[in-house]
Each structure stands twice: as C-alpha cells, then as structure tokens.
C-alpha cells in the first residue's frame, strides 16, 4: 500500500497531476451547470409547446418536434450522443471539446427537463388558469405570470436532482478530448499502472461534490417550504 501511495504522490504532486485534476474539476462543474441551464431553457420551451399543443395547431407542430427530440435524447446513452456529435456532426469542425460537451449535455438534459417542466405545469391547479382568464388575462400572460411561477417552485427540487445526475454523467466527457475529473485521474493511474489509489480518490471527489450539491438542494427545498407557509 505504501508503494501505491508513493506512486500516486509522485504523479499527483511531483509531476503536477493535480493541475489536471483542478482543470477537470472546473470543467466538470462547468459542463454540469451550463448543461442544466441549457436544459432548462430547451426543456421549458418543449414543455410549453406540449401543453399549448392541446389547444393550438401551431404549437401542436412544435409539440410533435419536441416529442421526437425527447425520444431521441432520452432513448440513447449520453456517451453515444457525445461520440456522434464529435465524430459525425462536428467532424472537421474546429470546436473546443468543452463547448462540445456542454452542448451535448445541455441537449440531453433538455429532454429530461421537458418532462419535469411539463409535470410541473400540469401540477398547478386548472383553476389558476381559469381565474387568470376570468380576470381578462390572455392565455400567454396567465401562463407566464400565474401558472409558470408556481410550476417552477414545484420542480426546483427535481431540477436539483437533475444537476446531480448531470455531474455524475460528466465522467464520460473525456471521450471528446475534454479534461474532466475522470480523465484527469485516469492519466495519473495509467502513468505508472497503479489504479487503486487514483480511482478511490476519484470516487471520493465525486462523493464530496454530490454531497455538497445534495445539501444545497435540501436547503433550497426547505426555503421553498417556508415561503409556502408564509
């Protein structure tokens, strides 16, 4: 065991492996957070189209497009999506691997967030829409000012869980030449073929990140409950 620790220390400290780990940590958080932001934007648009598609023919067309989009991205593994974008869609295009990963994770997240947002919108009592229309508000205004704020409050905890899932899924980002946490520790492990310590440390880093995110999500949930009581 001492030999393993010495080999890990040599690669991590002496030979500067910690620089890759810090870069990987930064990229992992960037991919997860920006991926969720893109996912929320896309998912909200798709969810609104699906809900409005029940009463509007134009929205129904976009709802069908949204159905295809969610089926494709929910029905294929994210690593396959990364490989298709990297080797087919962006083949020959000079694009940074980090940007590529953020885009793919955002598209993947949007497919899941669309269902989260649709469920959140439908969870709002139908009487809220009827009350808004009775007061003379348009369908769009009622959705934006009455229904949507309540839906967001309902889905915030679930969106937090989506962020946690995205963070763990970033472990495959290294397949498109992005320095994520997994790739950083894999470089340390393969430098001297000592895998036990690097991969245990990798698991520990992910565990700490997820625990911190879990605490933040629970604090947000608690704050939302307090605001509802008021």
Automatic annotation (TrEMBL):
Keyword Transmembrane: yes
InterPro entries referenced in this protein's UniProt entry, alphabetically: AA_ABC_transptr_permease_3TM, ArtM/GltK/GlnP/TcyL/YhdX-like, MetI-like, MetI-like_sf
GO cellular component: ATP-binding cassette (ABC) transporter complex
Domain ABC transmembrane type-1 residue range list: 25-217
GO molecular function, one term: transmembrane transporter activity
Subcellular location field: Cell membrane
Topological relation to the membrane, as annotated: Multi-pass membrane protein
Keywords: Amino-acid transport, Cell membrane, Membrane, Transmembrane, Transmembrane helix, Transport
Gene3D superfamilies given in the database record: MetI-like
TM stretches of this protein: 29-52, 72-93, 196-220
One BP term from GO: amino acid transport
Coiled-coil intervals, chain numbering: none
Keyword Membrane among UniProt keywords: yes
Protein family (similarity comment): Belongs to the binding-protein-dependent transport system permease family. HisMQ subfamily.
PANTHER family assigned to the protein according to its UniProt record, in alphabetical order: GLUTAMINE TRANSPORT SYSTEM PERMEASE PROTEIN GLNP, MEMBRANE COMPONENT OF AMINO ACID ABC TRANSPORTER
NCBIfam families per UniProt: HEQRo_perm_3TM
Name of the featured protein: Amino acid ABC transporter permease
Record organism: Candidatus Borkfalkia avistercoris
């Amino acid at each position: 065991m001492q030999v393993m620790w010495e080999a890990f220390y040599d690669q991590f400290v002496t030979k500067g492996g910690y620089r890759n780990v810090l870069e990987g940590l930064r990229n992992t958080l960037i991919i997860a957070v920006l991926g969720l932001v893109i996912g929320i934007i896309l998912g909200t648009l798709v969810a609104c189209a699906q809900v409005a598609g029940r009463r509007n023919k134009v929205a129904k067309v976009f709802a069908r497009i949204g159905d295809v989009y969610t089926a494709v991205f929910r029905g294929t593994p994210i690593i396959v999506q990364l490989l298709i974008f990297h080797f087919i869609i962006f083949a020959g295009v000079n694009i940074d691997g980090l940007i590529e990963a953020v885009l793919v994770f955002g598209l993947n997240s949007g497919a899941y967030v669309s269902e989260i947002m649709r469920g959140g919108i439908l969870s709002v009592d139908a009487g809220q829409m009827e009350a808004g229309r009775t007061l003379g508000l348009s369908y769009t205004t009622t959705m934006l000012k009455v229904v949507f704020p309540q839906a967001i409050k309902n889905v915030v905890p679930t969106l937090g869980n989506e962020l946690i899932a995205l963070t763990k899924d970033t472990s495959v980002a290294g397949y498109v030449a992005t320095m994520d946490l997994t790739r950083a520790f894999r470089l340390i492990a393969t430098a001297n073929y000592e895998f036990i310590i690097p991969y245990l440390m990798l698991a520990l880093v992910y565990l700490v990140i997820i625990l911190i995110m879990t605490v933040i999500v629970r604090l947000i949930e608690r704050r939302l409950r307090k605001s509802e009581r008021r």
